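Aim 2, interim progress: modelling of the protoporphyrin IX containing FE-bound target.
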Amino acid sequence: MESSRAFFSFISPFWSYFIIFIIALFRLIKTLKYPHSSSTTLFRKHRLPPGPKPWPIIGSLPEMLSSKFAPKWIHQLMKNMNTEIACIKLGNVHVIPVTNPALACEFLKKQDDIFASRPTSMSSGLISRGYKTTILSLYGEQWKKMKKIVIKDLLSPAKHRWLHNKRMEEADNLVRYVYMSSQNNNEGGLVNVRIAAQHYSGNVIRKMIFNKRYFGEGREDGAPGIEEIEHVSAVFTILKYLFAFSVSDYMPCLRALDVDGHKRMSKNALSIVNKYHDPIIEQRIKQWNEGTKAETEDLLDVMISLKDANNKPLLTMHEIKSQITELMLATVDNPSNAAEWALAEMMKQPELLKKATEELDKVVGKNRLVEESDIPKLNYIKACLREAFRLHPIAPFNVPHVAMHDTVVSNYFIPKGSHVILSREELGRNPKVWEEPLKFKPERHLMDDGSDVFLTEPDLRFITFTAGKRGCPGVVLGTTLSVMLLARLIHGFTWSAPPNKPIELLQSETDPFIAHPLEAVAKLRLPKEVIYSLLD
Ligand code: HEM
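Predicted structure of the complex, ligand included:
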């Protein structure tokens, strides 16, 4: 809704349609003058996936614009057509949404080599400073360079162990912050779980990269300061407008007009993030260059110290800055959203909360806090998180994959340049795959033989880290953050609904969050001695 609001506040519908009409007219004339043959042999033999009949040149952009929220429109359209794969022409682009796991595997596993690229887009170009990063870069040498660095130098098992204490400081701070909030009688002991979860994730990644929790003065009670609130909120705004069906991504000639306001929103949010990151990065590079710093203390130091074959810096300042922004984006959203939804769902079904608490008491006991070494044994907690990822993904679609050449999938022609978007929402709720798909039922993820539960889902029956070339390299870190967050909240505290305000499980109409942030009464359930040391 925000995006359509932004659109209408920028330009009236009449003018946006008029502009699109004029551009379409020009392009139609051009096309008629210089017809280009897209009818390859493949196209003659196979049809495109089913979809709405596109208007010449502009495709289905008018329908998309008049819908309140593009993802909802796409999903409804597929339901009306009773199809699990569709082709929606937006401007010049074939957009291919997919809601079936077998088809998803065809794209991301069987034909992974073909679908390993990303689209160019207004916001991804801005964030990645011209495609210098990993998630957002098109397939090619720059992506290979950055992905190798992320896997080998930033997220390797050795680096994960090296950063253990920094993560634990933030897991402890989470408990301190929730406890202090629960003691605040002005708020009736209410804890805003969304704030606690988002700031835990933000704190961990800031600590890992910049070796600090606070950009500003900081706070005694572990709560975020105004700087951190502004930072995390800007990160979420960037995520909101990333691949958010901006008109100019399908008709780049409209980019300068910013008809839906996405560019302005993304640029403003990015400038806030840069305001905090850039001075730290520039100062640190200077320190290393001047020799006033020689000890590697965090991931920023690691990035600055990387050398190429000629012993020259491997990464430019632009690459460091854009990659850091991208790592922030990659870390904050999934764990915090999954933990908030999981806790809300479990409060609605207290028997689930009881089972999770029993597991924690059995594995951890009540005389210490949850540690990362407990994670392999916390199968029920992981099952709850899997269920949250399945039922309440943070984004309606996976990051788009782009076809690098024409191909055929399940007998359908998929033209070069198509944007394949796996539906996170509908894969996880596909009734052919999941019994009672709308019910939060963690048991469905437990194995009969009691074997370990993982957050990965290689069969793509729902989306966590996906698979293939563009699969997420943050599986271990992402799992650690998600489990530590949910486990510490449940092990440390009992949770109840505020008086006269039952827990609501309503999803916002236009984004994947619970419509109102989860607020609940937390009460310490461990002996106070266990957290004494955190309160000094
Ligand atoms: C629970 C937490 C996380 C989840 C569910 C998650 C999920 C995803 C998904 C769905 C993708 C896109 C895969 C595709 O295009 O098919 C992705 C890509 C990526 N993720 Fe994660 N992620 C998580 C945490 C992290 C963390 C903590 C980091 C690093 C700090 C990270 C770094 C990346 C990178 C660099 C890519 C780009 C891969 C590429 O394009 O080659 N992720 N992640």
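The pocket of protoporphyrin IX containing FE is lined by residues 108, 134-135, 147, 150, 155, 327, 330-331, 334-335, 398-399, 463-466, 470-474, 477-478, 482 (CB under 6 Å). The CA atoms of residues 274 and 325 lie 8 Å apart.
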